[in-house]
Design a protein that fits this description.
Helices cover 42% and strands 16% of the residues. The chain is α+β, with helices and mostly antiparallel strands. The protein has a single domain, classed as Alpha-Beta Complex (Cathepsin B, Chain A). Strands 1, 4, 5, 6, 7, 8, 9, 10, 11, 12, 13 and 14 form a 12-stranded mixed beta sheet that branches. A hairpin with a 5-residue loop joins strand 10 and strand 11.
Length: 434
Amino acid sequence: MNGITNEMLEAFRNGYENDRTALTNTAACARTELKDLAFLPMSAAKLNGSFSVEIETHGITAQQKSGRCWAFAVLNILREQCAEKTGMKEFYLSGNYIAFYDKLEKANNALELAIANADKPLDDRMMEYLLNGFHDGGYWNMAVDLVRKYGIVPASVMPETYQSEHTEQFMRLLNNLVRKDISILRRVCAEGKDPQPVKREMIAEIYKMECIVFGEPVTSFDFEYRTAQGTFHRDVQITPQEFYEKYTNHNLDEYVMVTCEPTEHKRMNTLYQFHYIGSMADSDIRFLNIPIEELEDLCIRQLKDLEPVWFSNDAGAYGDRQCGVWDPDSFDYEGLLGGVQFSMDKADRLNYNVSSGTHAMILTGVNLDGSGRPDRWKIENSWGGELGKNGIFVCSEAYFREYVYEAIIQKKYLTEKHLALLETEPEVIQPWQK
């Protein structure tokens, strides 16, 4: 192997020490965050302004220090339906309620997978994936499964706790417990015994843990509210499932996950399916992989009907939280760091783990130029009202095309081509290929 030599280091030193711009930037980097130094405020200012297509929403949520953005984004869409049906000016659904059952289902699924793969060695690819653990992030489909099974409740019925808003420590403890349980279940299976009674005791233990840190989920509650006009209403002892049926359009089955992920494992215009460790034990995730131009057009169709769009993006790429902007043209990391070129195409960024969908939000608007094409997108985030413009963010068209990976579209907005693809047999991929 060719190592770094003293002659090479001497050449590197001379190159750096004779670069006046590099020395100036060294001084700047000593006491300031790189993102702030690279930020170009005048470029970001070009994204200011109203949107030609815009949806009014009824509140800004805050997931705090948790990975529940995917669930909050789904609840924010259902919240709009609740607000419309009740006539309330502002309304919130409980993220804590859905997240409680999400963790319980993830733990159960992990233990079921452990039982199904009990005969495999620990270095088997599935066992390695399983023992990597799970987090409190997820996909649209997972939230849909949870809502259908457990319903939803207003935020006032099951409010947040410190632990629900700061999940890192609990998730570490939960994953360690599940790994311990997996080791026990593997021994039970090796002895030829029925693992299900043992697993039931394990899930009961996890349920109790969750009740302690998140609170016990309600099974029924009184829903009392006033409309924007001041009229009082009361719904006595309604269950979470009944609340979902009564106060939303309960049409989550009409939505389809469409993606633009041009990786080695995924072709365009193809239906895929995989089973995720974070899903329910009997649920798979399906998605239609299509070109970004088609994904954009579907988002625009839905927004024009004043229907918000759940989507996922790479929140760590070219973003400023305070300003509420995502835009590659508003950051000059290359100039700051000596002309280094970071650019890669979308496929390579995905293939080589440079980028992925790390965050989920809802699109609530788009600005269309004179030719009818988008130049910026309005986003309702779940990072609270202190960031962005009162919780509202914007991304450029350049960012959308490169760093938006998934969107959830109602079937009625799909083209005939897309509908036909949904009828094909899905190609099954492994969860680590997603």
